[in-house]
Specification:
Elements lengths: L2 E5 L6 H13 L6 E5 L1 H10 L5 H8 L9 H7 L5 H12 L4 H6 L3 E8 L4 E6 L5 H10 L9 E3 L2 E5 H4 L4 H6 L4 E5 L14 H7 L4 H8 L1 H17 L3 E4 L14 H26 L2
Parallel strand pairs: 1-2, 1-7, 2-3, 7-8
Antiparallel strand pairs: 3-4, 3-6, 5-6
Helix pairs in contact: 1-2, 1-13, 3-13
Amino acid sequence: MRKGLVLEGGAMRGLWTAGVTDVMMEHDIWPDGLIGVSAGAAFGCNYKSRQIGRAIRYNTRFAKDSRYSGLRSLLTSGDYFNAEFGYHIVPKQYDIFDDEAFNQNPMEFIVVCTDVETGKPVYQPLTKATPDTYDWIRASASMPLLSKVVELDGRKLLDGGVGDSIPLEYFEKKGYDRNIVILTQPAGYQKKYLRLMPLMRMVLRKYPLMIKAMDERHIFYNQELEYVAEAERQGRCLVIRPDKKIPIGHISHNPDEMRHVYELGRAVGERYLERIKEFYQI
């Protein structure tokens, strides 16, 4: 049996997921592999480094800091969430990312990005904490319109949620046969066509295949929800999702709002704890 953990994105909704995963870590629940998309990658990396509470800690600390995020960063650097400060200065100076623990943990850790030249997902395994590792995580979480294209290893990359929002099928093909899937939308949610597509077409005009992927994203996302639902019916996965819409937007500068969302995630994590242990056969 190979135990997998699949974390979808959702920008600041990812703090809800961090609440769930912190509860799992507190109870010594360690999957064999984790695959994270966007915020699922940005916050999920703390699972491999075994740093409980880190995601909520640095997000609330820097919520109103213009060096971390905001329009000033977007206008001056091209990234709403400042790449240098958020992905290189914070983890090295202010809220230290435990590189050694990350490196020593045998858990497989994969982030999903989208290649803007092909519109296809890129699945990048990250085994050692290096500056490039931080940038792969940044690429996975780089939302179109709010981020520059990230160039790494000869690829041009953006938000992994465009290419593969819920990569359960990919993880199953890698041999993970007992997967917990943490979603950030409640039961019954269906993604709708993106109303900002006219603006996306203008901003991403050099990347027609990325535009096509974004134009069809709602279709593929809803198909992935169907795949997850069938896997759940067959007992191949355990799905953890919020009871209702998470009360936070894609962007937030309100520490109290962040803490509230995180605590909602913790509550669900506590409620699912015995089911998680039973599913993982712990």
